[in-house]
Amino acid sequence: MKRLFMLGLMAGLSLQSIAAEPRSPLLDDKPAFIASLIEQMTLEEKIGQLRLISIGGDMPRERILDELKAGHIGGTFNTVTRHDNRPMQQAALRSRMKIPIFFAYDVVHGHRTIFPIGLGLASSWDLDTIASSGRVQAIEASADGLDMTFAPMVDISRDPRWGRTSEGFGEDPYLVSEIARTMVQAYQGQSPAAPDSVTASVKHFALYGAVEGGRDYNVVDMSPMRMHQDYLPPYQAAIDAGAGGVMVALNSINGVPASANTWLLQDLLRRDWGFDGVALSDHGAISELMRHGVAKDGREAAKLAIKAGIDMSMADSLYREELPGLVASGEVGIGEIDTAVREVLGAKYDMGLFHDPFRRIGLAKDDPVDVNAESRLHREAARAVARESIVLLENKGQTLPLQKRGTIALVGPLADSPVDMMGSWSAAGVAKQSVTLRQGLLDALGDKAVLRHARGANITDDPHMVEYLNFLNWDKPEVVQDSRSPETMVAEAVAMAKQADVIVATVGESRGMSHEASSRTSLQIPKSQQALLKALKKTGKPLVLVLMNGRPLDLNWAKANADAVVETWFSGTEGGHAIADVLFGDQNPAGKLPISFPRSVGQIPTYYNHLRVGRPYVEGKPGNYTSQYFEEPNGPLYPFGYGLSYTDFELSEVRLSSPSMPRGGGLEASVTLKNTGSRDGATVVQLYVRGEVASVIRPVKELKGFRKVFLKAGETREVRFKLEEQDLKFVNAQLERVAEPGVFEVQIGLDSEQVKRGQFTLL
Ligand code: NOJ
């Protein structure tokens, strides 16, 4: 059989101890090159390309190298150094076809430098800031020999019980789509082939954030209209931005698991959206088709998955075991295998691996001596991003910013917990390199003030919860209990607080509480910490809550009792510095919530862009027979888009460039924003649209634009938004995107509730 000389064999390759071969004449013609490869591959080699293997999983390293040499592996994940990846790539290049593998990893909000979690990034409402985090992630990951990240995670979540809410960018289709596009572009840079780019594999396709009851891995049952209107746009935005991969979700959709869903993977993804990258299953998802009860055995599961369009099976042996027999019996056509192989090879081609398989691994002599060296971190960028991710929820009597003088009592189980600072999915981040709030305050204060610290409480005193959290996939137990009694710890904290000028209580969740498989039935801060807060409150000292958490919490007590409340999420490697910047006013907070905070768990789902009903609740006029719960008001405790500043902003009335919009035309909506306070600061001006009457029920409002604006104290600026017919489109009952003529209200505000209004007609 003709051998294809397909390796690029750039100058460096021979240094990787692989015999140099001439460059294939077809190398620069992607379709011809890949077709030619496929033509020469055996069935076994083809099936090998469809396997994505977890390193550190069941397969011993020696066996992995043998499988690579045999051409039985298409890609791997979970290694994070060039040193580890190099021998694997070398082994792959010793296979008959010499097809390189790719290396993937969950670089979700940081690789070595950890940035704020998804909800934190989204709280910046600043696409440049978000892009800067994505770019650093790509630079660091590619410098460690990685070619692909399993990100961005763009699942819309309106149910904070779901632990993975933390990873995503919130509840809103428009905001999440904008971020999805931004992240893909940041990861992939100029081209996914660039040595400092990683291929984005957007996940979890699709609708994973809508699992029933917020319980992870549960089913999703959703009307097509809602799907297309609200939940699917972010994935499509990522694909339109060129994402090279899609990770298919673990959930089912309307009775069919995503991993066996031909409508999802073929009709929608490939045909309608034109996706031509690689589709990966999530971990073990093909075997799970048996547990979903749609496949009677492994053979049927593999058949369903390949026919639906899963190109690569992640950490799942069924493709290897079952595809040969399925092809032999004719149940799976060789054409179906070839299609999957073409997509895998296409992704590798786009990563630049055929031109240079060592493009991101480099030469051994250039390997970092210490992969965790400080010099490899991007602390400045991490601090800048984290500062933008912090949301000021309460600030009574201008408690904040704090003075750098007197005595500060720092209390709480999260005040000095480096591992929690990083949040879940912290990739190759090293806990001891993250700056806790205690360290951040010490650095900010120097000798200007006294900082005292007491733990005050354990994260939780519930042994079952501790056991569960420590059972999650971490290297070592990370919820470490202080052995003193709760009473002793509280008493110590209270005694210290009484001697201080102000209390900073750092409370919330451990990072494992907002994670995969960490769904909750409650949104409360754990009881141990509540008891601490109540005791601190009794001291009468000013009480500042610094929250660390990965989901909206029930903050009723905090709102009523704390003097200031600062939502910091899990803010990453430089979190402690960034929070200190905000607490002392070196950074005027400008973050806004990307997700509503409900009043109670019973209100879920709580999201601002809900559909209208026939008997709407009217605030202040509870009345009977309207759509409400009778124990508490409708609406969130803190709305979508909300966040305070140390300065005040005022918005003028809305001005519209025209009372009507012609078909195919546009108009401009503008407001004047004034910083009426005494500090410089930024805020996010948000534009919402409400269609008054349509052929189907429309939401009460929908975000259609936002702008982060920095103004000096006293400064005024005109903020303009363009609106086009495109912005007025929605999904009708026939699932077409249409704009219908009629009256629209434009709402512009600094959150989704307090808005100024204007009106126009679409002709
Ligand atoms: C399972 C998770 O659902 C997914 O998000 C992740 O990318 C894979 N495991 C690989 O770690």
TrEMBL record:
Family membership noted in the UniProt record: Belongs to the glycosyl hydrolase 3 family.
Cited PANTHER family: LYSOSOMAL BETA GLUCOSIDASE, PERIPLASMIC BETA-GLUCOSIDASE-RELATED
GO biological process, one term: glucan catabolic process
GO MF: beta-glucosidase activity
GO cellular component, one term: periplasmic space
InterPro entries: Cellulose_Degrad_GH3 (IPR051915), Fn3-like (IPR026891), GH (IPR017853), Glyco_hydro_3_C (IPR002772), Glyco_hydro_3_C_sf (IPR036881), Glyco_hydro_3_N (IPR001764), Glyco_hydro_3_N_sf (IPR036962), Ig-like_fold (IPR013783)
Enzyme kind, highest EC tier: hydrolase
Domain of life according to the entry: Bacteria
The Fibronectin type III-like domain, residue ranges: 683-752
Location (main, coarse): periplasm
EC number of this enzyme: 3.2.1.21
Cellular location(s): Periplasm
Organism of origin: Stutzerimonas zhaodongensis
Keyword check for Hydrolase: yes
Catalytic activity as recorded in UniProt: Hydrolysis of terminal, non-reducing beta-D-glucosyl residues with release of beta-D-glucose
Leader sequence segment: 1-19
Chain's gene name: bglX
Keywords: Glycosidase, Hydrolase, Periplasm, Signal
Protein name: Periplasmic beta-glucosidase
